[in-house]
């Protein structure tokens, strides 16, 4: 009945191949006169999702997580991963070949400093590390009295016999009604920013920024409609867009040629030579630009300005057309989610539901809209103790049946042409325990506190992050992830530069779309996360006030499960917010499901006032 077309549950890890692949790499390193090599999980753009041809870390080690770095020496090798992946990395790698090192215990640089022999030559691919990462590696090598060597051509590519080809998905033009701003206008704003900062040019190394600037989308990676590409935008003169010509139809090429020169990506370095001539100052995005670009600019006599891409903040502050699209996408997605929740309530008591079955069902309800382009990330669907793993990814091996007395966390999102969604609900299977209701209600109180927040312009996400944690803190509890991340408009579901987090130092601006997703996780027992997306908007300054104020508009619409709420823990203001929110869900989603009697009836009951 239900199927998943956008997400695979097969465990693609092949730990049994790790030792053989490691031997192939070491032989190639020997041929090149290298004693070691650094293998990050990244592509040349530092993308969250990378094409199969760039999954070098997975090919080498078997580890399929989204973050990690392998450090290969002649006689030993380490895989350094953060806390999300220590268990997964141990399960997916051959312990005779790799030592899994938790990042919290030892950084890659510290491991190298302790294990790299004096006089060794450690190789790295300058296209896969940023200048910041390179500087840390350089210090570690120097401390071990070893040499750090940039390779010309990745040695893994030389021994990866069946390496997939680079992607060539077609580039499409963004509908002007959804983009809300022309490419010419965006380029003009970028040039104004360059002039204000006395920069001669900027390199757009982040394909998200390229896609936004030139109003294009693509399909080169999973879950994000990206065309892998680069651009150089000078303060004066025409930009150059570097994109594989095989991705461009004649119509798309003609439209882009009106704004920029079109060149193959292999021409990027030569173009940097020309742009840097005469000592030009060029901005490189410190978060995404590979170290190779900096080396090339400096060798050509240019000066590097390292900092944030000027496109990042422009892209994050959505215009009215983008926000209208996001709102429309969320209503459509909300109706699909309500259909899923009604189905879940009907089927869960039967005891036949599984994590994979629920993921496939929700995706099917979204596909039934006729407008789903992709998921926005692999769905997180954790039952019972699996729900206590914040970044759990269900596989055929880990798939768990939903049992009575458990909680089920479903965190999922969709890509529609008019917007990107991300929503999490925590659902009871049978009667929840008092502890579950207490923790759920504390998480809900934190969610409401963020949603209701009003704050002065210039406030950062770090200042708002405690709003979500205060009720857990009061009980001696907390959660170990950020409260919220930025979300793109039919782009990345994890978009910078702003976030609601202890590390979120960028001030929030009107038009930004962020998640509001506090949680709680009891290891081995259950997890809770509640997530809506919100838009930063201006708020009126009260009489006598002296500051411009901002607040949030919630744009996700789906019921919170009232069976897991303890009303005694809620204030009158919190109950009023929840009842108002549910009334809004009923008002907006009700007409979209009114022809479906069972779903419509379920929605009326699920959105009834909390007390009465």
Give the strand tally. 28
The computed structural class is alpha+beta
Number of helices: 19
According to CATH, the fold-level topology of the largest domain is Creatine Amidinohydrolase
If you compute it from the alpha carbons, what radius of gyration comes out, rounded to the nearest whole angstrom? 25 Å
Global morphology: globular
Strand content: 15-25%
Uncertain stretches: none
- Quaternary organisation: single chain
Overall mean confidence score, pLDDT: 96
Number of domains: 3
Top CATH class of the largest domain: Alpha Beta
Query: How many strands, what sense, and barrel or not for the largest sheet?
Result: 6 strands, mixed
CATH A-level architecture of the largest domain: Alpha-Beta Complex
Strands ordered across the widest β-sheet:
4-3-2-1-5-6
Name the CATH superfamily classification of the largest domain.
Creatinase/methionine aminopeptidase superfamily
């Amino acid at each position: 009945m239900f199927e998943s077309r956008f997400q695979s549950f097969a465990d693609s890890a092949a730990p049994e191949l790790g030792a053989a692949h490691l031997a192939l790499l070491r032989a190639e390193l020997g041929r090149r006169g290298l004693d070691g090599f650094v293998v990050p999980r990244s592509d040349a753009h530092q993308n969250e999702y990378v094409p199969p041809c760039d999954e070098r870390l997975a090919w080498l080690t078997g580890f399929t997580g989204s973050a990690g770095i392998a450090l290969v020496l002649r006689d030993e090798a380490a895989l350094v991963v953060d806390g999300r992946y220590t268990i997964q990395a141990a399960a997916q790698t051959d312990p005779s070949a790799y030592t899994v090192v938790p990042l919290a215990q030892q950084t890659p640089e510290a491991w190298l400093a302790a294990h790299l022999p004096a006089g060794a030559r450690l190789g790295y691919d300058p296209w896969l590390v940023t200048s910041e990462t390179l500087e840390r590696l350089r210090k570690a090598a120097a401390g071990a009295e070893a040499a750090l060597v940039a390779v010309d051509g990745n040695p893994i590519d030389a021994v990866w016999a069946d390496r997939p080809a680079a992607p060539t998905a077609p580039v499409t033009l963004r509908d002007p009604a959804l983009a809300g701003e022309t490419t010419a206008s965006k380029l003009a704003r970028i040039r104004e920013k360059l002039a204000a900062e006395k920069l001669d040019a900027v390199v757009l190394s982040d394909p998200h920024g390229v896609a936004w600037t030139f109003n294009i989308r693509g399909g080169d990676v999973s879950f994000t409609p990206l065309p892998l590409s680069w651009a150089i935008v000078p303060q004066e003169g025409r930009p150059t867009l570097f994109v594989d010509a095989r991705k461009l139809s004649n119509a798309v090429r003609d439209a882009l040629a009106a704004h920029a020169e079109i060149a193959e990506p292999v021409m990027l370095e030569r173009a940097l030579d020309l742009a840097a001539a005469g000592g030009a100052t060029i901005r490189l995005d410190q978060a995404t630009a590979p170290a190779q670009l900096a080396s090339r600019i400096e060798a050509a006599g240019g000066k590097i300005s390292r900092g944030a891409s000027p496109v990042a903040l422009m892209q994050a502050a959505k215009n009215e057309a983008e926000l209208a699209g996001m709102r429309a996408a969320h209503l459509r997605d909300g109706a699909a989610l309500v259909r899923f929740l009604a189905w879940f309530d009907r089927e869960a008591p039967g005891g036949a539901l599984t994590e994979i079955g629920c993921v496939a069902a929700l995706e099917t309800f979204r596909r039934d809209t006729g407008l789903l382009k992709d998921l926005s990330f692999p769905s997180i669907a954790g039952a019972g103790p699996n729900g206590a793993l914040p970044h759990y990814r269900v596989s055929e091996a880990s798939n768990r049946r939903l049992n009575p007395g458990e909680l089920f966390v479903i965190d999922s999102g969709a890509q529609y042409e008019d917007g990107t969604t991300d929503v999490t609900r925590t659902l009871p299977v049978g009667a929840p325990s008092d502890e579950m209701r207490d923790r759920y209600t504390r998480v809900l109180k934190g969610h409401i506190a963020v949603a209701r927040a009003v704050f002065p312009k210039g406030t950062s996400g770090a200042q708002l992050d405690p709003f979500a944690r205060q009720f857990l803190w009061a009980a001696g509890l907390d959660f170990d992830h950020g409260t919220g991340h930025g979300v793109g408009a039919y782009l990345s579901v994890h978009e910078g530069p702003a976030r609601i987090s202890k590390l979120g130092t960028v001030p929030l601006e009107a038009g930004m779309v962020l998640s509001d997703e506090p949680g709680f996780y009891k290891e081995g027992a259950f997890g809770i996360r509640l997530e809506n997306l919100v838009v930063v908007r201006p708020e009126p300054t009260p009489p006598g006030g002296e500051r411009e104020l901002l607040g949030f508009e919630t744009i996700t619409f789906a019921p919170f499960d009232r069976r897991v709420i303890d009303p005694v823990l809620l204030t009158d203001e919190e109950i009023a917010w929840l009842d108002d929110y549910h009334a809004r869900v009923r008002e907006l989603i009700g007409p979209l499901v009114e022809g479906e009697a069972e779903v419509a009836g379920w929605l009326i009951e699920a959105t009834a006032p909390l007390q009465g």
